[in-house]
Structures are given as C-alpha cells and as structure tokens.
Amino acid sequence: MDPAFETKVAFLVTATRTLDVPKILVLRRLTLRDRESRQWADERQINVVFNAILTRAMERLGNAGVEQARKNKFKTLLPPPDGWADEDIAILTEVADRLLGPAVAHSAAQDDIEALIAQDLGEAPKGRTSAPVKETVPLYAAQIGVLGKKPDMIPANADNAADKPFSTFNNLFDDTICGHVRRLLSLFQVDKPKKADPQLPFLLSPAFPVAMDQILRQYILPQMRASRRVQTMASSENWSDGGTVKLLAILDAGEVNNPILYNWDTRWNACKPVKVGNKVKLPPPEDDPWQNFKDFAWRDGYLPPTIDALPVFIDLIRYEVDAIEKCWKELDQLYYQEFESSRSSGAREGAFRDGAIKWATKMPAHVGEFLVLKAFYSFDKLDLHFMRRFASNFGRNDADRQRAVPFLTEMIRAAGG
C-alpha cells in the first residue's frame, strides 16, 4: 500500500474519532475540495474512506437513532447548507441502509478500507501478553468483506492503493508483508549517526531492511504461504481488487483466527533453539536465519540480531506507526527542551530520562528501548555515561539489565562499558 495513503487513513480515523456526523460531512467536503488530497488518493478512495468513517459515527447513534434520522430525512445530521445537501443525504442513506438493512450492493473497496480502519488506534499500544490463538476456522472472509473468485493472474493495475503490479498471489503476499515491515523499520533508522562508535544496533541501521527482506523471503514467507490456511485464503479471494489493502486489513484484524499472524508467529518460533535436557538443540538449516543475520551485519557494519531479538521480530508487524511516531516526537522535544534550550521554558533536569523510562515501559517489548538507542545515536549530548545511568533503572545487576534491556546492554558492552 502507498505509505502516504495508509498514513492519511490513520490520521483521518484518529481525527474523526470523537466528531459527530455533521462535522465529518464538513471534513469530507473540505478534503474533496483540497487539491493536495489528490496526491495521496483519488476521489473514489476518499469517498470510500469517509463512508467507512461515517458508518462508525452513525453506529454510535444506535439503530433507533439511525432509524429516527432516516425517517426525518437526516435533517438533524446535516451540516449548514453548502450546495452539498443532496450528496450528504445520499451518503447518509447508503450508510443507514447498510446498518439497518436490507443489505444493499456496495463496492468491495468499502469493506477493504472499513476493515483497515476498524481497529481502535490508541495512543500507545500495550505489549502482546497472550499466546497465539490456536488456528481454527478462519475469519478472514468477515475481516475483508465479500469473497470472490480467485483470478489466474492479477492484472498490473489491480490495486489503486499501490503502484507496484503483482502477477501472482505469492508476489502480492511477499511484497505486501515486506513493504509493511520496511515501513515499520524506517521508524527506527538513523541515517546520519552522531557517533561512529559503537556500531549501530541492527534495528537502527539503514542497511538492515535489505537484510530483513532477504531473510523474510528465504526463511519466513514461503513457509507461511505453504500453510493450509494461507493457501485457503489465496484460493478463496479475488486479490485483483485491492489486494494490498485486503492483506493489510487481515493483518490489522486482531489475533483471533488470523492466518497471517498465526503463521508469522509459527515461522519465527521455529527459528528458536530448543533446550533438550542439558543440551541446546539448534534449529535445522532451513529454520536457522541467525548465521545469515550475522553475515549481513558483518558485511554492512552493524551489531547483528541474536536470539534475544526473536520477540522483536514476532511483534514487529503488530507495531502501530502512530504510537511510535508519537513516542519519538516526545523524546525529541524533551531532549531539545532539556539539553539544547537556553530559555527558561526548557524542561527540568531529568525530563528526558523520565520520558524515556515511561515509553520504555509503556510501549511493546523493546520498542522504547530501541527509540532510546536511536536518541543516543541522533543527539550529541547523550553520551555513554548517560546511557549507563539510564540502563541502571532496569535492574540492580548486569543479569537483570540483560533481561530487561538486552539491546541497550549489548550496545554499552560493545562500547567497552
């Protein structure tokens, strides 16, 4: 999916979460009038997004409220007249018919984007605590909408939300997952580190997404596609109509009976060494990417991931872009207020440390830790002494800190600390 499109959808969902129907209709008018909006979506896509947002807003009225509004020709839900009244009524009628029935025909794209934005975008996601749900009857049909017939080949212009053509489901699946991962990795990258030593941890290196792409295509994605549930999904859906959006909608649909998340977890867990008695049994070569990770890191000059990174890789495709961006923005502001600001409005001493501790504990496992590492390599006045003191907040001894913040501990160790 085009990153600009996905970002704008997430922004609109967040911005309209508490707005009532008249205000959403006004926002829709403004968006359609704005020429810059056409840089990230065409008119059809904008209408699909706002129809989905209006559906959520009208659901909050309850069935009785929607029925009463429909009887009154939606007079109470219309904004001030602006030459759009007929179009507003037509949109509200369509949404009301969908909510109250009988069902009316609507585009598959509506279901796609509704599924994409259906999840609640909170300020900061909590770490995943439950074990993967056992894969039973798949729910992806309900997650992405009406099922169609699988085409033999997917035409090059199939997905209006992405520029890249896909010739087969395998290509679509691999490129969509890899593209999603690359976008998430970009949130951690440091393009011009302020420190040359120690080497960047893997997640911060601009070279790591290339290595991760190759690892996924060799060790993870082919085996995922070979699973029964993903094969059933591939053969049961018309992927020529918004295929990238549909896959991302399934990815975002939650843990229960999710064929993508289930098989993603299964493949990464297969890469984990298993303790048998007093010995550690390594995974077979087809399930062992760790040496390849080391080779890529040696070639490109960064600290390689170890088995400690397994929880990071498992949770990676579950990360929420807006929460990570909010976290980094706050850390950036706190740094400049505490260390760079010469005004009396600067932050108090220790404000950056306290903010970093908050996010390190609030975000999913190790996300805050890596953002603090990003800050170390991005900001001049964060030195190794600061990082050692920061790490001391996560344990009384080296063993405790290694368990709590292993990547920060490894960086300090690599620096000779």
Which terms would index this structure?
mainly alpha, 417 residues, 20 helices, 3 domains, 57% helix, single chain
Q: What helical percentage do the residues reach?
A: 55-70%
Strand content: under 5%
User: How many separate domains make up the residues?
Assistant: 3
Cross-sheet strand order for the largest sheet: 1-2
Weakly predicted, low-confidence segments: 119-163
Mean pLDDT: 80
Quantity of strands, as a count: 2
Question: DSSP helix count?
Answer: 20
| Global structural class | mainly alpha
Provide the succession of SSEs. HHHHHHHHHHHHEEHHHHHHHH
Profile the largest sheet. Answer: 2 strands, antiparallel
Shape by Cα distribution: globular
Structural overview:
The protein is mainly α. The chain has three domains: 3-117, no CATH class; 150-309, no CATH class; 320-414. 57% of the residues lie in helices and 1% in strands. It is built from 20 helices and two strands. A two-stranded antiparallel ribbon has the order 1-2. A hairpin with a 2-residue loop joins strand 1 and strand 2 (279-281). Helix 3 (43-59) crosses helix 6 (108-117), helix 6 (108-117) packs parallel to helix 11 (243-251) and helix 8 crosses helix 11 (243-251). It is globular. Residues 119-163 have low confidence and may be disordered.
Give the gist of this structure.
The protein has 417 residues and is mainly α.
